[in-house]
Amino acid sequence: MMQNTEGKKSESETYLRVEKLKTQFFTARGIVKALDEIDLTIRKGEIYGLVGESGCGKSVTAQSIMYLVPDPPGRIVSGKIYVGNVNILTGLEQLAKITVKSETNVKIKRNKRMIKRHNYLLSRIRGDRISMIFQEPTLALNPVIRVGDQIAENILLHLKVDMANAILRREMSTRKDYESFVQKALSIGDKDARNKAIREWCESYSISDAEELVRNIFLTYQDPETVVKSIEFIVNERKSGTNINRLSRAREYYLYQQRLFEATLNLMEAESGKNQDEIDRARTALNEIKKEGSSFLSFRIINKFIGKRIEAPLRDAAKRRVHELLNLVNIAEPERTALSYPHELSGGMQQRVMIAMALASNPQMLIADEPTTALDVTTQAQILDLIRNLNRQMGSSVLFITHDLAVIAQMCNRVGVMYAGNIVEEADVNTIFDNPKHPYTIGLLKALPRADRIAGKMVKLETVAGSVPNLITPPTGCRFHPRCKFKMDICEKKKPELDDLGDGHKVACWLYQEPGGSGK
Amino acid sequence: MELRYFILRRLLLLIPTVLGLSIFMFILIEAVPKAILVTPYINPHSRIPYIIQEANALKILGFNYPPPIAYLFYLDRLLHGNLGLMSMPGYPNSVAAAIVDAFPNTIQLTIFASLLSIAIAIPLGTYIGARPNSIADQAGRVFSLTGYAIPAFWLALMLQIVFGKNILLGNPLGVLPFSGSFSASAIPNPTPSWFVNGITYPTHLVIFDALIHGDFPLFVDALKHIILPVLTLTYGILAGILRFMRAGMVDASNQEYVKTARSKGVPEKLVIKRHIRKNAMIPTITVMGLLVAGLLGGVVLVEYVFAYPGMGYLTTQGILSYQIWLVIGTTLIFGLILVLTNLIVDVVYALTDPRIRY
Ligand SMILES: Nc1ncnc2c1ncn2[C@@H]1O[C@H](COP(=O)(O)OP(=O)(O)OP(=O)(O)O)[C@@H](O)[C@H]1O
Ligand code: SF4
Ligand SMILES: [Mg+2]
Questions:
Q1: Cβ–Cβ below 8 Å for A143 and B279
Q2: B87 lies in a domain?
Q3: Is A174 exposed, middle or buried, given 0-12, 13-18 or 19+ CB atoms closer than 10 A?
Q4: Is A141 an interface residue toward B (CB < 8 Å)?
Q5: Class for domain A11-142+361-414, per CATH?
Q6: What is the pTM (predicted TM-score) of this model?
């Protein structure tokens, strides 16, 4: 109840909301309970840092949000992940039936049809609303595809409608440009002045080779309409020539695909709601839209054969955007770099390319899983700057994963501390560093060399005693209890919830909660 | 640009390789008793005494000089297209001429078998490799392991028994001819000018020559003759390519860049086609070259079992009747084919994998 009203309050500014996410790996040695019902919200435009020891589940969290957990062995068992307003785990129960007979004997029965539909949903969300940067750029780029093409792929998948709109708008406006130019040129009485105007115009349309022709047209005809038509003809002749009709038909088709997606999504949402009326309504709506599809039959056949030609202007636009993006991530020679293969670039350059790729389709959220761990210190600083600047410029949210608290301190607005598959503390960055509450966070911070503590004297850095628990048989109750100095009886028995202490400082520890009776 | 230099360099490298091959062949020749080497050069019906004929032949072949000089004589003969003499009934006297007659048939078998196996194995490997451990995958695995395990000559015999015409009485499947490259009964009557001594012109390939000259029944007959040998050869390489393609697909599927592709929202079909298969092709191409080269070994057996008049058949006939120059000649040609195949594979490899430094 409480959570519900609270959820409503922050709805407007939340972009990602993860609820009770449970991800497990079904291995031969037992079930790895990697994520234990974690909750996580990321607001629009903020950089959220996720920090924790190796193996605590940071990458699994990131992969779960993208639905990229390697399957087998991993599966998201339950939970909700709202990206914007879409729950990417819609219909999760229908994707596969998991029957747990024992730790090592788990039967997973997959439903191929549902998985196919879910993949379709994902392909529309991934890269479009939410993108990811990986730890090892060397491994994350496809070695046999030119990096420019890898970036363009993303653009062509998600921005077709926008690009087609832009191209069509430009092509429409050209006609108006011709008209105004012809009017102007005809009104110039002086021959030399007119010729100069013609030369400039030809240059601006990069058809200088046709200047003579254009001049002759002006000499031959006086009627503006004829002149405009002739000029249009020449310009189209000189340029490769976009087929406006085909492109606008293509745009209609892309829009139809978008509607189809939205209707499918609605149906999936209705189906997870169990309200028969709604399901029927969503299904009829989807069928209606599918019927529209038949009018695209001839287009689809044409597209199959000359799709490359229809999309040629889109590809050109994508190429230009690739160069822009490479510029944006501070790559000096965009044209040349776009044509390189990944192995021809340095690690830092590769990570820049990855970032350009992730940003290619203007996602509202970026997940960066230790994006600088594989890089040297100088490059690391540059990449961090880049991510921070892009976050400011584009206003997209960032989920920033690292095990380096120093990086968290300089990058993030809010921080979540993870321990053994749980988020144990969450607060804004200053609160975490100045007023940590959870015993694990306190331990982590003690292990961090800090200027104010080092100043003057040598300080022996402490580490958190003990080691990370095995997640096949995690400790009961609070998973931190075997290593906790403040352990109480209840800690072993009951798991503490992530509870708000006020001002959005959340802690999952019995020290700060009243467990119905026993406590401090 | 760079690729052109790479190919040029590889072509230049061919020269020492081929020289090395010829030296190796010459060592084999040197190991053979001289009396056997000169046999085809001696006319038993001549009145000139054997000793004198032998001495003459040795002199012509350069064997009266020390081996290095004799090698130069051999090289000179090779460069003039002279592979030595032979005497087998029904064959020309010149080894080179016999090889020219037989060579196209072998190339035809090899090319058909390679193309067929590639055309099947690549899409099939893509399909099952994208669904590891599915039923299709299990079936594919059994299929390719069987292909590895079955010796070509046994498969050839089995195919003959099952599909060979008139081998098993009342066998409804027995509809295919299993010996030779055409049936004597299919030769047009009267024998046309492009059909001389069982050899067709201009390509020496019955299938194509029949087509060129518009003899459709002969074309069909020749096509039927090639089915069983091609199938036998295909199965072996098909199995190999399939296995590598599947393994390549599975391996590539687990790479990080596939995760990247999915994270970009690339639809599953394109992930397989664009991102996984492209990478899986690289190891497959390497092994494809080796397998196609390995076909040359298989082709000897298969041609023998099916009495298909190619290089392999010619070689076995030569071995059985002690035609030393013939055997040396075909071995040399097989070696050349191997070298050329390797060159082609390297070039294709360089074309597919941008990481290769030429
Ligand atoms: N493919 C897998 N199979 C089995 N267990 C896995 C798999 N991937 C992750 N896990 C388990 O999930 C847990 C969390 O792993 P995760 O990779 O998220 O750690 P992390 O926090 O990202 O650590 P690091 O800082 O080392 O990257 C680990 O206990 C790990 O053993
Ligand atoms: S709940 Fe108990 S064991 Fe867990 S951190 Fe708090 S005090 Fe320690
Ligand atoms: Mg990790």
A1: yes
A2: no
A3: middle
A4: yes
A5: alpha beta
A6: 0.79
